[in-house]
């Protein structure tokens, strides 16, 4: 209690003994795995021509570690996890079903991986197909179809709830392109789906800048910034589709604990995330045999992420560890993937994956 408030409660003019400040007591020691992890990550960060950020949380023991994890990181396709949770909540409420069909529209098409773009506009596509394409193959068109069906505001509401943060603002994947190119010229806000596909076919760099100028019927001299690198860096500074790795890790922990979805939805989503085809050279490449990584990768201009939950069998039990990492600044995607592979190797070497949860701390109690 503050001294002034204490004096008022005791009565004016009455002497009051002020509380004696007490020390908060010794801080609990850091878990033994954090120091070797920090040492390896610092070395990996020094080798990388940019910056890496890492958040690790042992879910059974509720031990965590941050390496720049409190900073804001561009998530790229990492935002597809809250999109999936939003869709699966609609299914749990009976408003959608896995066999519900959503008609593909001409304006839905976005560049990127996956197979949704092989279907002509007007094709009715099942929700389970779209979820698989979005998560397993990181299909951007499938993502935007699902966002259109549930609403971007609903996706943002789920992200705000599960990340315990108001900072994450999610947009469609098409709007990512429009906003980034919009840093060069405001006319990019009017780019249509076919325009975005045309731009993707031009090599990243001066060729794409020239193609954008032609589409907007301006000259590169009319652009606000000199090149594509500057445009994307300016876009990243808007902090859209970005969050701290600690907050994203909080969402992954909530999902793993079965608190984001019901049992069936949780199992379905984690199964999809364990079958992801992207990022084979990232964190997964540094994990030990037997580890299952339910994750989502994200890749954008000079940005790469890998965000998920490692399940590791240990002496008849399964330990679960959240590992969320991003790399920024490297011109080469191969360099970013190598850095993320080193993150996986550092997590493995630290011993956190095989750290046993005491029986009394397990949800079902002692065996």
State the total count of DSSP E strands: 9
User: How would the global form be characterised?
Assistant: globular
Give the averaged pLDDT, no decimals.
91
* Count of DSSP H/I helices: 13
Jot down its keywords.
two-stranded antiparallel sheet, alpha+beta, 40% helix, disordered N terminus, 367 residues
Secondary structure topology:
Blueprint: H1 3-10, H2 34-47, E1 51-58, E2 63-67, E3 72-74, H3 80-92, E4 101-103, E5 124-126, H4 127-136, H5 140-150, H6 152-162, H7 173-182, H8 193-201, H9 206-216, H10 228-236, E6 242-244, H11 245-256, H12 263-274, E7 292-300, E8 303-314, E9 317-328, H13 333-350
Antiparallel strand pairs: 1-2, 1-9, 3-6, 4-5, 7-8, 8-9
Helix pairs in contact: 2-13, 3-5, 3-6, 4-5, 7-10, 8-9
Quick gist of this model?
This protein has 13 helices and nine strands. The protein is α+β, with helices and mostly antiparallel strands and about 375 residues long. Helix 3 (about 80-90) crosses helix 5 (about 140-150) and helix 4 packs across helix 5.
């Amino acid at each position: 209690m503050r001294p002034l408030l204490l004096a008022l409660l005791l009565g004016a003019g009455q002497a009051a003994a002020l509380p004696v400040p007490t020390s908060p007591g010794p801080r609990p020691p850091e878990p033994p795995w954090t120091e070797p992890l920090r040492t390896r990550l610092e070395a990996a960060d020094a080798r990388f021509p940019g910056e890496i950020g890492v958040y690790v949380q042992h879910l059974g023991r509720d031990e965590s570690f941050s390496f720049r994890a409190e900073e804001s990181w561009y998530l790229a396709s990492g935002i597809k996890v809250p999109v999936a949770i939003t869709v699966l909540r609609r299914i749990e409420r009976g408003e959608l079903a896995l066999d519900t069909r959503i008609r593909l529209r001409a304006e839905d098409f976005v560049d990127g991986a996956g197979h949704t773009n092989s279907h002509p506009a007007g094709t009715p596509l099942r929700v389970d197909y779209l979820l698989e394409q979005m998560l397993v193959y990181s299909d951007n068109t499938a993502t935007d179809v699902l966002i259109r069906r549930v609403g971007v505001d609903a996706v943002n509401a789920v992200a705000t709830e599960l990340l315990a943060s108001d900072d994450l603002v999610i947009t469609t994947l098409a709007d990512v392109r429009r906003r980034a190119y919009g840093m060069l010229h405001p006319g990019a806000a009017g780019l249509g789906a076919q325009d975005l596909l045309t731009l993707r076919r031009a090599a990243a760099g001066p060729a794409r800048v020239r193609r954008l100028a032609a589409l907007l019927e301006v000259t590169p001299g009319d652009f606000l910034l000199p090149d594509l690198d500057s445009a994307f860096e300016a876009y990243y500074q808007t902090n859209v589709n970005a969050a701290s790795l600690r907050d994203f890790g909080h969402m992954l922990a909530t999902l793993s604990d079965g608190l984001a979805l019901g049992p069936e939805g949780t199992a379905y989503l984690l199964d999809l995330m364990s079958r992801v085809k992207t990022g084979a050279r990232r964190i997964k490449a540094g994990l030990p045999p037997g580890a299952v990584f339910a994750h989502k990768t994200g890749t954008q201009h000079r940005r790469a992420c890998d965000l998920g939950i490692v399940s590791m069998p240990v002496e008849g039990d399964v330990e679960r560890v959240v590992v969320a990492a991003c790399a920024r600044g490297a011109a080469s995607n191969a360099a970013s993937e190598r850095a993320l592979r080193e993150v996986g190797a550092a997590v493995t070497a630290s011993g956190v994956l095989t750290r046993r949860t005491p029986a009394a701390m397990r949800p079902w109690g002692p065996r």
